[in-house]
Design a protein that fits this description.
- The structure is a single chain.
- Helices cover 15% and strands 43% of the residues.
- By secondary structure, it is mostly beta strands.
- It has one domain: Jelly Rolls (Sandwich), CATH 2.60.120.560.
- An eight-stranded mixed sheet has the order 1-3-4-16-6-12-13-14. Strands 2, 5, 7, 8, 9, 10, 11 and 15 form an eight-stranded antiparallel sheet that branches.
- The termini are far apart.
Length: 248
């Protein structure tokens, strides 16, 4: 009898592990949160890019599921860019490349935390964009959640993760007081010498050697286009998107 219990228990553990692996594999396959196989990207009403000079692209997995950049929306409201997703997407300007040593920063305001989703979804800055909008697109992004966590990920062109599947908690990342409450994050990605750093609210939350990023299966270069990254089903206002040159 004891042996039977052991066999049954082992089988249940194995099945549980296989289910967890399958979920993680599929979520990673589509670039993490933002997948139609995760919790469902919902196309927005009257979508599309409403600002001259801006372009965008959805994740490859979102495209395979029938989503397009018109399934999300980017508009201007006063001095803010208002992004509403929809599928996981990136937005950029083709005439705004960054090269050498530089910092890209912006302020992200989620007026109503988790307004369009049942759990936290991230948003942030991307840099090193090359072949954007094509199947060979490569980029690196640092994004914050309104629950105090952040992720550093990219496309090379397949999705890759720099700080694990679940990201990391950091005291510098602001937490919303509760669902439907506002939360703001100041996010920056900086390239200087051999280092790439992500700052959130003025604190370095992640630091990487450039050689670990510019390699097969990741980035072509840290030079490239920069812009904004949003997971699926988010509603965020962005201000102060700027590029500055880092001096020696």
């Amino acid at each position: 009898m004891k042996k039977t219990f052991i066999i049954v228990g082992s089988a249940l553990v194995l099945v549980t592990l296989l289910i967890v692996f399958f979920i993680a594999r599929n979520r990673f396959k589509v670039g993490g949160p933002g997948s139609p196989t995760a919790d469902g990207s919902r196309a927005v009403t009257d979508g599309g890019i409403k600002i001259s000079g801006w372009v965008g692209a959805v994740d490859a997995a979102e495209e395979k599921a029938g989503m397009t950049i018109d399934s999300a929306k980017l508009t201007r409201e006063g001095d803010a860019l208002h992004a509403t997703t929809g599928p996981a997407a990136v937005y950029w300007m083709n005439d705004a490349p960054a090269s050498g040593d530089y910092t890209v920063k912006a302020t992200f305001n989620e007026p109503k935390y988790m307004k369009l989703n049942s759990h936290p979804h991230p948003y942030g800055i991307f840099i090193a964009g090359n072949d954007m909008g094509t199947p060979n697109q490569t980029d690196l992004y640092c994004a914050a959640y309104g629950n105090g966590k952040f992720i550093v990920r990219g496309f090379g062109p397949a999705p890759f993760m720099m700080n694990g599947f679940f990201g990391e908690a950091n005291g510098a990342v602001h937490k919303a007081p509760g669902r439907g409450q506002p939360v703001t994050q100041n996010i920056a990605l900086s390239v200087k010498g051999d280092n790439v750093k992500c700052f959130i609210n003025g604190t370095v939350v992640a630091r990487y050697d450039k050689a670990t990023l510019v390699t097969d299966g990741k980035l072509k270069s840290t030079d490239g286009l920069y812009g904004l990254r949003f997971a699926h089903n988010t509603d965020v206002l962005v201000t102060g998107l700027t590029l500055t040159r880092n001096t020696p």
